[in-house]
Structure formats: structure tokens, C-alpha cells
Amino acid sequence: MSNQRNETHICMEQLGTGCRCTVCGKICHDYRTNNDGTFAASGKVVTARCVRCGDQVHYDADSGVEIEDYRFFKPEPDPVHPSRQAPQSELLYMVIKMDEKYIISGITERSVAEKLGLRHLTVIVVPFVMDGTDKGFWIIHNRHDKQIAKGKTSAPLSLNLFGGHCGPSDDDITGRIGQMVENELLCENALRELSEEFLCKKGMEKRLELWSEGLFAGEYLYASPYEVCYENLIPIGFTGYTAKDNVEYSYIFALPVPGSQVDQIIAADNYHKYSQTDGKAYEIDIALPVVSMAESELKRLWESRNPQIEVCDAITRLWEEQNHATYQRLLECIRNHGVI
Questions:
Q1: Of 100, 101, 118, which is closest to residue 109 (Cα–Cα)?
Q2: pTM above the 0.70 mark?
Q3: 3-state DSSP helix/strand/coil percent for the chain, to nearest 5?
Q4: Which of 248, 254, 285, 280 is nearest to 268 (CA)?
């Protein structure tokens, strides 16, 4: 896959129908194939498919010559360690802003988006306590154990919200390219992320590893997704965020949670653990503790610059000047929720 870039724009951020750049007209397909090098001398015909628009080419596995018009296709390199069967890279929607509208401009892999700084679409959910003595408090989680499980460094207290990336379903890879980002798509992705991350201890659907002092404690906690429907999510608005390896437009939702239920909530995330028995990678869920905190206290912790405390960018982007209007709408929503 080539890095299509010129002096005025990055083509991959401006793709329209058929992976054609809407600025310069250049076509930028991203062909992928399941040919892992074992098809040589097999006489097989291999199909390569563009993961962004679905365009296909067919070529001879021995010669690499395309069958229809004999254009040469360069197959993907052999995997570094096939026996470990590392999971495929996540596909994300790239997005652009035009006339105050947010348009899906293409699809790319998460690793490519991070490497090239391609702006992609995410959702962030801000759960808050809707009543009781902690009314208005934000419900956040400490992601420290997940970061350690993934082999990353982390402050002992690493506070984060809930949400994740938006990408296509397996049966609709290219159908939304060129379309405006709709609330239905945002809600679907928010609900999916919540079903994976925002759980209730009263349930047995998911088994979560319990960690202590950076190590798996050998014990498990069982939980099920907290019941959330479309009507529970309160739409707030878009935020922008730009970092070296993370460029996003994120849509913010608020989620009211009864105070009587907060103690039953547990957060979760996953990491990939390699089995010494079969060498395969397995997705493991890990329990993450939940904290309810006033937004003012959260901001105070961030401003303290304490190296033992990290406030993640899902939160801090809300305090950026470019996102001030969305931030104010969020505060007003939380403050006035339930007020007649």
C-alpha cells in the first residue's frame, strides 16, 4: 500500500467513491489478499480485494500476473510468525469535515491511521450519576492494569472514559463511503463499545481476569453488559483531537446512571495473550476498577501534573478550546438532567 501524499493534501484523507481522491483525482486502492506464500506452484487464482471500496483483481498465484488485463499485483509479505496467528488489524472509518458536516471519506486499518496521522471516527461516552449524593459525578475507570497487560507503561492511576473506534461491519465494507456521519451509526458504535467495556457485576456473561500490582492474580470476576438502549444515550456533539499518532473526530454521548447502580458497575477491556500450548493469540477480558468523581476534581488532578496520575486524552480533549462548545453542552446536559 502506498502512502499517497502531495504538497497540498493526503489523498487517503480525501477519498470518495472508488477510492478516487476528491482533490486530485488519483485512485488509491488498498488491495489485500489471503495469499500467505503457500499458493506458489499451485495453479491457483488469487483474489485481492480493496479494503476501502471493495474493488477486486484476480491474479495467477505463480506469476503474479492479473488474469483480466495483466497488470502486476504485488502480494502482501509473509507473516512474521504465522503460528501465532496475530489478530487482523482493525478497520476504521476515515472522516473529513465539510461545511460543518462530517463525511466518511474512506476506510483504513488502525495501524495505518496511527502511522500516517489519518483522521478517523470515534465515539466517547460520558456516564454520569443522575441522582443521589453524587449527582453529576462522572463515572470513569482506571485503565492501568490493561496497559500493563498489553506491555505498555502506565501511571498507577490512569483515568479514562468509555468508547472506541468506528468502523464498517463485515457485510457493509464500503456502503457508507461518501455519506454524512449519521446518528444511527454513532449510536450503534457507542452501544457496541459499552457492551464490551461498561459492565454490571450482576451477571455471568463475561469472565474477567483480576489483576493486582501489575500481575494476573489468578482469579476471575463475572459480569454482564450494563443495560443501555438508544434512548439512554444523550447526543452532545463532535470534538476534534490531534496528536502525533492519533488524529480523530470524536462524537460525545452522555449516559445517565442511577446512583443506586453505580456500585455494581465494573469496567472491562481486552488484551491478547499468547498460549504456550498452541502458540495462538487469544483475546482475554480484564476487569478495570470504576471511580465516580466530580468533573472539577478530575480537572484538578490533570492540572496537578502528578506523574502518578494520568488523565487520558478522551477526557482532556473536552477541555481544549476548539471543543469548548461541545464541552459546555455536556456540562449543561449533566447539570440539567432530570430538572423539570
A1: 118
A2: yes
A3: 25, 40, 40
A4: 285
